[in-house]
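Entry 14. Ran structure prediction on the chain below.
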Amino acid sequence: MTTIRLTAAQALVRWLSLQQAEDGSRFIEGVWAIFGHGNVAGLGEALHAHRDVIPTWRGHNEQTMAHAAIAYAKANHRRKAMAVTSSIGPGATNMVTAAALAHVNRLPVLFIPGDVFANRAPDPVLQQIEDFDDATVSANDCFRPVVRYFDRISRPEHILTALPRAFRVMTDPANCGPVCLAFCQDTQAEAYDYPVEFFEARVWHIRRPEPDQRELEAAVAAIKAAKTPLIVAGGGVLYSGAEQTLLDFAKTHNIPLVETQAGKGAVDWEEKLHFGSPGVTGTGCGNELAAKADLVIGVGTRFQDFTTGSWTVFSAPNRKLLSINIHGYDAAKRGAQGLVADAKVALEKISAALGAKRFADPDFGARTKWFATTDALFAAPKGNDLPTDAQVIGAVDRVSGKNSVIMSAAGTMPGALHVLWRAAQGGYHMEYGFSCMGYEVAGAMGIKMALPQRDVVCFVGDGSYMMANSELATAVMMAIPFTVVLTDNRGYGCINRLQKGTGGAPFNNMLDDSYHVNAANIDFVAHARSMGANVVKAAGIGELEAAMQAAKSATIPTVIVIDTDAGPGTGAGGTWWDVAVPEVSTRREVNEARKGYEAGTKAQWLVN
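Output, structure tokens:
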């Protein structure tokens, strides 16, 4: 056996550089790194030696550079990914939130945090967590519940098995998710004679599991027996590459569809069978269909509570649930009739079995009425009134085209965009599995790295911007252009509305309602400009549209700040959401809200 002597870190980086996606490019496009004493000497040296083969990028925060990696994987529909490395201690634990985000959203990212010394000679080292009862524990054990695969590399030969296992997880359509390889810092520097064949290039193919014949026949029978079926398209449609297949299926059999947050953009909004979105952030016409559907056909969705209106929106008597999903866990939720298979394969086989079967037309008039309603919401405010979030969305919609990808993650904008945004196919990117404040700016950078030919627009509120904005400076440094629409409503406007809607007093959400000695006066224009971005303060909707148009030709990020009215919600659509209201309170408003809450819970479908 021919061998080559390398350090464990050198071997890891060399192996990563040789793993290929199905299109022949690197599966791990590059490595985000903030170096510290847990990774600078080992991995840092190895990454420098391979810098012309696999790039290394420097971030400003471990969590947000991981957000960029996650957004990159999502924009690539899980066909490619990135790695992220940090030192031990706070560098590693900073990435735990990002790992949880990737886990909830079923997205691949390779976390390589530095770890303590395997030989324990200098213990305890700087930043080491010591468990008084378990000497094997380190800070990296925090990753265990939020990754799909965890391994601790404490001997150099461990990577011979750990790396292929990690890639098996990241390329598995059913179990896809983040991986953590906690890399002991002395092991990184230890040399070993590795087999040369370990470093042969390999293409990682994504499987397309075929459905079980009995489940397929049962699914076909359920659809044939339905009178008013409705398709709920989730993120699995995108990850399967089943967008056109889904549209063909819907049109062939005349079945209307709605899209979840993860599935939005699978079908262009102008398709007449597309009725928008379901549930809490559902369109009026979409929720009308959901209430009448006798068969709900979930395709690649995990039926999150927003999609289902906390299991109240699919309310037709004796309605049934058919769940087409790559994973049996998701396919069996809520007593659904499951079809475990790749979405594209399943839809093709079901369609063939249905033959010429077509259903009656849905109410296309309701769809037309819905868009007339949203046209009114999109119109610019009169006089000097501050614009609502819906009016800001309308302005961006008017100057965006089919080439635009809009994105967000938390606060008001995800719900408003889901219900209102008119997404072209492939034009929507929402992190709403974890709804993580601070994902937005870094995520926009990751999307642009994945889709450099697209116009990427990031919607972010002042609250989320303040959570994490440092990768704006990274994007400037790397010349990665995208547009940030920063809506300033002086606080957490979305949660303030929820607080009041459940009977609570405005408290600790808006800046003026929080404890303060000095009134908050944050200059977002000066802040973004200090990081090198192009910055515009839009005095109104007209200036916002002009700034949006100008930003399309920029070579660095553009931040457009606009003051907005924190009061109104979307103004249309939506349904009940289960947010527990106190059973007893000294506030009259809370007691009244409790009555509405109890009425809502009575409508829930409780089968699990």
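The first strand starts at residue 3 and ends at 7. Will compare against last week's run tomorrow.
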